[in-house]
Specification:
OB fold (Dihydrolipoamide Acetyltransferase, E2P); 5-stranded mixed β-barrel
């Protein structure tokens, strides 16, 4: 059997399909490892910078924790909840699970209130916002989009 006949054979096709499937499986596995590593890295940095993220930037003690953190590792790509503190360019958001996240507003951050554009100076404590962004090295979320929305039904502020 010469090489041209072997390439056309069923056994060669089977081996080739097996190799392609193994390569695809390895690529998918590697992508899962990279995503998990990024999430774990954010959670690690979040813990390392916990005090700095929750200390009042205007001086004084810690910001209100409203029950403290709980549950799974914090997600790094966004936040949903009520604004509990504003010290531009940072905003602290407390979600429905009472986990507070520090959001950094940059010059390229798009802020929307319904269909209208807004500015960071229009944000107020007590506003309910949805934030999309990326985690930074300090465990904060660098906002790309902030949308001011009405609070969901049944949402109550536990401090009032």
């Amino acid at each position: 059997m010469n090489i041209k006949e072997y390439i056309k054979s069923e056994s060669f096709r089977g081996i080739l399909i097996g190799l392609v499937m193994a390569i695809v499986a390895l690529v998918i596995f590697q992508a899962g490892i990279a995503i998990g590593e990024r999430k774990a890295s954010f959670a690690h940095r979040f813990g390392d910078n916990f005090e700095r993220n929750f200390r009042d930037p205007r001086g004084g003690g810690f910001l209100n924790m409203r029950g403290g953190p709980g549950g799974d590792m914090p997600g790094g790509h966004g936040a949903v909840g009520e604004i509990v503190s504003i010290a531009l360019p940072t905003v602290v958001v407390a979600g429905p699970d009472n986990l507070e996240k520090t959001v950094v507003i940059g010059k390229d951050t798009l802020i929307r209130q319904f269909q209208y554009e807004a500015t960071e100076t229009q944000l107020e404590e007590g506003d309910f916002i949805v934030v999309l962004g990326n985690p930074n090295e300090e465990g904060q979320i660098e906002a790309r989009l902030i949308r001011v929305v009405p609070p969901p039904p049944g949402f109550t502020n536990t401090d009032q």
